[in-house]
């Protein structure tokens, strides 16, 4: 099943999402992004969103910025799909420099919280939409035990908790 994950020239990113943390592991290079899931906009003109930054860097911004966590909701891990897509795109770009010649990127999305009893179809659709909006070509939604880097390149990961979308 993981033969789809091991591209010769593409990249597989393993994205773990917590309420207060976003961790992305590049399965090919081993490089990680592990920061707070925050996105900031300039608040000088509220009718127009101007991007100001993401991750831990936005913690030092002053009150002239609007800071949002797309995964901060009391009942679900997704609070804002649009902001989540922006955050994913920025974080993935910090790991992989994409250009015209860059191969496909596929992502294993792993929600780490709020998954007791599995994910609802609405949550599954929201995670997949968020990843597609971030520019991901193939999205695999996974819940279960955390994966190790070597598992991203091994054939035969068989689990009922892996869904292609």
From TrEMBL:
Name this protein carries in UniProt: Rod shape-determining protein MreB
Gene source species: Enterovibrio norvegicus
């Amino acid at each position: 099943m993981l033969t789809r994950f091991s591209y010769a020239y593409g990249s597989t990113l393993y994205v773990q999402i917590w309420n207060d943390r976003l961790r992305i592991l590049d399965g090919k290079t081993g490089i990680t992004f592990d920061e707070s899931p925050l996105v900031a906009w300039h608040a000088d003109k509220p009718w127009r969103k101007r991007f100001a930054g993401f991750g831990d860097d936005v913690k030092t911004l002053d009150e002239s910025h609007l800071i949002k966590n797309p995964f901060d909701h009391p009942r679900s891990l997704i609070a804002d799909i649009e902001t989540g897509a922006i955050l994913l795109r920025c974080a993935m770009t910090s790991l992989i420099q994409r250009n015209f010649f860059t191969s496909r990127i596929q992502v294993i999305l792993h929600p780490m919280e709020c998954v007791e009893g599995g994910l609802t179809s609405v949550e599954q659709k929201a995670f997949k939409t968020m990843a597609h909006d971030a520019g991901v070509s193939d999205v695999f939604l996974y819940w279960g035990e955390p994966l190790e880097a070597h598992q991203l390149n091994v054939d035969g990961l068989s689990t009922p908790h892996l869904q292609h979308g």
